[in-house]
């Protein structure tokens, strides 16, 4: 079955080019030209991936992404003309899975689209079916069947990647993970030394689960080595 992609792009020439190429590659593509239309199109059907331009009329790409993450963990690939690390970090921090900067080659874009969909599909297929699987670490509790996290009984809203990173640590309490290990395990892709992706996700995760993010206790940093789950 062909994967469904929501393409959000206000530049008509780029939108038509990407839509045509991905359609030839076997994807079903729905094109939205602004953030408002994107929200409408997303509500109409299920998608396997969202290709999101940041500079959009009516509703910005960032506002669209924040709204999307209130109800969905669908993979989001940011497409942006801005190449600054701040813009990348901001987008990834709000729940994007990857980014590509303009101008880009259609071959690279297609490869990233396929990789993002493949990672989600592989993760879903690999999830074992068991009952009542609860992991507790001090005040944190993760329900592996329902993929929810609570702290002192209050649910913590995590993005898909934040949830997978935390699960990696909570299911391997004695193991030390380098950034490369985290990336290959969670993103299921080759690591090319782009530490920004790991740094942003780790920072956002700590803001949500730690009492004092500047002095983390649940995920400890081993300087020059990596990270491990804290001991209580």
Automatic annotation (TrEMBL):
Residue ranges the UniProt entry marks as DNA-binding: 132-231
Domain Response regulatory: 4-117
CDD domains cross-referenced by the UniProt entry: REC_OmpR, trans_reg_C
Keywords annotated in UniProt: DNA-binding, Phosphoprotein, Transcription, Transcription regulation, Two-component regulatory system
Modification 4-aspartylphosphate, positions: 53
One GO MF term attached to the UniProt entry: transcription cis-regulatory region binding
Domain of life: Bacteria
PROSITE patterns membership: OMPR_PHOB (PS51755), RESPONSE_REGULATORY (PS50110)
Main location group: cytoplasm
Gene Ontology CC entries for this record: cytosol; protein-DNA complex
Membrane-spanning segments: none
The keyword Phosphoprotein belongs to this UniProt entry's keyword annotation: yes
Any one GO BP annotation for this protein: regulation of DNA-templated transcription
Localization: Cytoplasm
Positions of the OmpR/PhoB-type domain: 132-231
Protein name: Transcriptional regulatory protein YcbL
Gene name per UniProt: ycbL
